[in-house]
Please model this.
Amino acid sequence: MRAAILAILLTAVAACDPANLSREAVDYRPEQAGTVDHALCLLGFTAVSLRRTSGTGHHLVAARLNGRDALFVVDTGANLSVVDEAHAAAFGLGARGSRPGGGFAVGGAVAARQVPIDSLELGGVAVRQRRIVVANLGHLTAAMRPLAGSAVHGLIGQDVLNEHRAVIDMDRPLLHLIEADRDPAPVPAERCASGGAAEPP
Model:
């Protein structure tokens, strides 16, 4: 079994205020011709709101994993999407169908396993993959919890972002994902006449 590689980078800022997540209003304009939002909408992308943590600038995305609400860090440096071992049972991620392996994180080697999933959605966008990695992310989830104000269950990595041709607008912040299994996947112009990004929790 090829080892799963986990590239997890977390910058801890001890002096920063672990205050509430930024909830600034997002100026999403798919109906306005000439905007990036309109162009991406016409190509079949759906915008998902991200939550930015105060002080560190990490982005969190609301998700549903196997029908249960979850909160993930968007980590463009991670090869794979990972659920923290401590939360695996809550999402029904047991030993059934698992493939043992290992990986590397900032702290060194970690045990990991790939497990089947029934469903994963990010802001209402159905993710096509049917497996996810489970590993001990205790250092990440413990550091992120006070910044998020709630439990953080894992991270979304390059596997999901690549599969859905992710475009991240860091400033607003928005995550654009193409839903169809083709690219481009143009949609009728009427779909982009009005719209909004999925709201975070």
About this structure: The first helix runs from residue 36 to 42. The radius of gyration is 17 Å.
